[in-house]
Amino acid sequence: MYTTPYMHATVEDVYQRLDQVIDPELGISIVKLGLIYKVEVEPKADSPEACVIKIRMTLTTPGCPLAAVFDHMVKDSLYGLPGLHSDMDVKVDLTFDPPWVSDMMDEEARAELGF
User: How far is 54 from 65, CA to CA, in rounded Å?
Assistant: First the structure.
């Protein structure tokens, strides 16, 4: 495992921040909705005190009119994390494979939406 003397955000830090991002239509966290598939935090090759955050996520529907908004909401939520020097170092990979289904929600989200 790569070790560094620098302090970077952790995957857990990223999930905590993403849990504060609320889907504007459903009013529930994108984490609780199961929209976040994967989070990676890696040191930047050219600047070891900095990190790159990669997020693989989906939306509830491929034709979601708010797709562009989510990119900004995700990047804004991560502002100020240790090692993150620019929102350009947050890579959001939007995918629909696998497609989102309501079974991906956590129990709290299911209860709130009446599932």
Answer: 23
Give the Å distances, CA to CA, from 55 to 40, 45, 94, 111, 113.
7, 18, 8, 26, 25
We report the CATH number of the domain holding residue 47 as 3.30.300.130
Alpha helices in 27-106 (DSSP H): 67-77
In a domain, 18, yes or no: yes
Q: Quickly count helices (H) and strands (E) in the chain.
A: 3, 3
Total domain count for the chain?
Answer: 1
Structure confidence by residue, pLDDT tens digits, 79-111: 999 999 888 999 999 999 999 999 999 999 999
At 7-32, the pLDDT tens digits run 789 999 999 999 999 999 899 999 99
Domain interval for residue 107: 11-113
